[in-house]
Amino acid sequence: MRVAGAAKFVVAVAIFLLTFYVITQVFEIKMDASLGNLFARSAMETAARSTKPPRYKCGISKACPEKHFAFKMASGAANVVGPKICVEDNVLMSGVKNNVGRGINIALVNGKTGEALDTKFFDMWGGDVAPFIDFLKSIQDGTIVLMGTYDDGATKLNEEARKLIAELGSTSISNLGFRDNWVFCGGKGIKTKSPFEQHIKNNKDTNKYEGWPEVVEMEGCIPQKQD
């Protein structure tokens, strides 16, 4: 009886040890698989982050070189959505900021620091051009000037106002007409014509909206004013 009991005990211990071994092996396999999955997910997430396209200031398509200010702007859309002007990742004017209006919207930026100096809009349909002319005359040398139309930016423009804008570097201002869409970036004291200007004529045969052309957008890098 004692021998039989001892044999049963040995068998029980052997079964226990075998069961314990099998369980630990399965657990290790599951742990390895879990860790493998974890590392695989981590590697995929890292790869996804590394391939995610970088974001540049104002959402422009590429980074600006040193001593340049990034900007992006858009004209208004018909008489519904206002223009937007962004410089160095700062939205200076937009419908969300509630500081845009019918006519010509204008933002002034310090040419050395890139800091915003002023924002205004002038109604060129039902307003008076005289305050706009006075404002243009008050702009200091070295100031970056950004302009965008909304609804109609040309009806009240006269030759004096157009000449002052042309002196800021614009080439299209002389042809700006009723409900044309136009964006422009120039500067006071500029010696050449600005490369930053987009203009779409109001044409009933090609207009995107009824009575208005499509939105014009523009982005770029403005050289910093040097002493």
TrEMBL record:
InterPro entries for the chain: FAM3, ILEI/PANDER_dom, ILEI_FAM3C
GO MF terms held by the record: carbohydrate binding; cytokine activity
Record keywords, A-Z: Disulfide bond, Lectin, Secreted, Signal
Annotated localization: Secreted
GO CC term (a single one): Golgi apparatus
Gene Ontology biological process terms from the UniProt entry: epidermal cell differentiation; ERK1 and ERK2 cascade; gene expression; inflammatory response; keratinocyte proliferation; neutrophil differentiation; phosphatidylinositol 3-kinase/protein kinase B signal transduction
PROSITE patterns: GG_LECTIN
Pfam families named in the record: ILEI
Record domain ILEI/PANDER: where: 102-189
PANTHER family with a match to the protein in the record: UNCHARACTERIZED FAM3
Family indicated by similarity: Belongs to the FAM3 family.
Protein name in the entry: FAM3 metabolism regulating signaling molecule C
Higher taxonomy: Eukaryota, Metazoa, Chordata, Craniata, Vertebrata
